[in-house]
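@channel anyone free to eyeball this complex?
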Amino acid sequence: MSGPNIAIIDYGAGNLRSVTKALESLGAKPLVTSDPKELEAADALILPGQGACDSAMVALEAHELTGYVQKTIASGKPFFGVCLGLQLLFDSTEEGNADCLGIIHGRVRRFPEGLKVPHMGWNTVELQNPEHPVFAEIPQGSHFYFVHSFYADPDSSDVVAATTEYGLNFCSAIAQGNLVATQFHPEKSGPTGLRLYANFLRMVGSLA
Amino acid sequence: MLTKRIIPCLDVDAGRVVKGVSFVDLKDAGDPAELASFYDHEGADELVFLDITASSDKRGIMEEVVKKVSENLFIPLTVGGGLSSIDDIHRMLDAGTDKVSLNTAAVHDWSLVAAASNRFGAQCIVVAVDARSVPENAPIANTGGTFTLDPESRWEVYTHGGRKATGIDAVKWCRHMAGVGAGEILLTSMDADGHKYGYDLELTSAVSEAVSIPVIASGGAGSPEHLLHVLEEGKADAALAASIFHFGTYSIAEVKDYLADHGVPIRPIQES
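replying in thread with the prediction:
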């Protein structure tokens, strides 16, 4: 059996193993690579990430991937950003000075004072776009695992696919065409998280 | 709404779980991977593995354990015990753990916490703190150190599994750890640990109020009521427990049902 050909973008962002394992458990054979030729050959790309925006942008630049990611998303190739991989899609961040990828307009902001940060643990996700194929069979208000200190604040509510409450109501998933990104970690969110990845694989399969 | 986390903790000695689940029919009750799966299906929100291997030449085994466990575990895993360098942490994260917990090594040299946090991100650095109450009227001089004991100190940090006193004030220490880059505090009361009379609520709330990072309470769980108290009065963000789960005194579902009935936000079992 051959599932869709998925590439996980390796730009030195640390632990890619859990995303890889999650996709493997669904029958996919993801390739972890930073080679543009291999990325080009894939049916879909996943941009994972942890840590700080600035160093991630530096690492993407160092691997000469910034322009590639922008171009690929514009071309309509299915793309999934996870956690920092969601934040990097925005214009800019309060976390540092680096410009981010500028694919989604808006800014990544610090949580208000008085909250425990990181926002860590299982929180509910309110689907704003429940008809989106990536949310198939995912109940409204499902719990997903979060760990992050900043949140994305898009200029347009059109891209907001889901929201979550932590001190304020923030954008916990975005969807725009074939681009999907989640602030939470599907690979750490048990069966519900795996279902979301399975839905993405199905999206990719039906497009390929 | 952010839920409170329920976290079983498993002790691993030379690759085998000791004091593992004893009440269900598992093929191998000492197999970390099998137990991890068991607790995942039971509804655990995260898992902690504590490596208690005494001999240093068997330490490498834990890496293999983590590799095997993470193959099929899709909830967060924390590994602690004996990690003392950036290299140790790197190897454990590479093996597939999501977080590492640092204890004695952090006390020995707190710059390790800062360095690890810078390198791997605060989200994966848990600082484990073992605290014991300072006897009343203990003669303590105020040295003016940033986190040393003073006459007002109520809890002292211990290392080496609670055997060695450090002269460090537990609350000040936790604040310091949060300041240098810890993502979370795993706080164990050595007074309460093993007694099943309940968590140390005063210690837990003192630390939870002193830091702006999540606090996992540990030590003393004997009933669901104890978890309720530490998550409410103790202001803990998560509760860790070992024997009540391992010996089947209560299942995770029973604990979660009890907490939900008392208004604590939890992740429902049916989603796990």
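from a first look: Residues 8 and 32 of chain A are 5 Å apart (CA to CA).
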